[in-house]
């Protein structure tokens, strides 16, 4: 007697719910962030950069403050210290009983010079030195006429270059570093065909948005770490006045940086989607890098040119550097950052839309480089 085997229907798996565009974007952003944070080269390079920045600020303060010690000068009784030296903080008056005692102090090296009474001179005193004229003391004792500046310049060109160089370096280092990472990852995914698997799970626009968002977080974090390290260095070296002056320009720099980074990252991502080999990345990275390096070279070479700096503060690619520099030196009206930021936002929106179209139409095309015309037309 045989029994009929009954077959049970195979269990059905629940259908996988498609990710929403925002969820897909966050998933890709998380992947980008974790990939960089777990990289030893990323952590080591950032740590070295922060240490160099902090060490540079402290070292410059130590070297620059080496001449702050007062110069010892012997003053013989009978010479009015207040009349001769005034309230000079760079001179330390050492009392001497007579000319002989003053000469002994100079010869022994205890003082750099001596001021002794001398009735044969119109001033009533003379300066004694060992083997070289004490230029600093002579200049201090010289009578100079008062000078009135009709258009005073409160800052030196050296300070302008340093401030511009600082803002420019932060923007260039973070934008170029993150942009290069976007290019490398995108081309590697195309070359290994991993992008086909990624696009089966998330839309191309969400993939682009996630890459930009993830690297945006990394870039903003790196810039914030640099700013915090610089503030710590200035606070440790007692340069609180400079730190207070930098507060408002730093806030505007962060605001401009948030949108300027998206602008640059979109260009890097769109350019990376046009090529399929690492050997071809130079052709697409060079134009983007030139746009990033524009504010760096602009503020360094034209720091003293008010007209050029004004133009740079309105150009979207250089506004994140040009406008904060002008605000630091009180050269921008209150409404100028708002207009510049509006121009930057409008430009970013247009570039992101074009980059999204190029990225979507080129991501699955491998082999030879995709021309920009074909990428825009979707051919």
Automatic annotation (TrEMBL):
Localisation per UniProt entry: Cell membrane
Pfam families in UniProt: ABC2_membrane_3 (PF12698)
Main subcellular location: membrane
One CC-aspect GO term: plasma membrane
InterPro entries with a match to the protein in the record: ABC-2_transporter_component, ABC2_TM
Membrane topology of this protein: Multi-pass membrane protein
Domain ABC-2 type transporter transmembrane: 40-356
Transmembrane stretches, start-end: 41-63, 162-183, 213-238, 250-272, 284-303, 338-359
Keywords associated with the record: Cell membrane, Membrane, Transmembrane, Transmembrane helix
A single MF term (Gene Ontology): ABC-type transporter activity
Domain of life of the organism encoding this protein: Bacteria
Protein name: ABC-2 type transport system permease protein
Record organism: Flavimobilis marinus
Lineage: Bacteria, Bacillati, Actinomycetota, Actinomycetes, Micrococcales
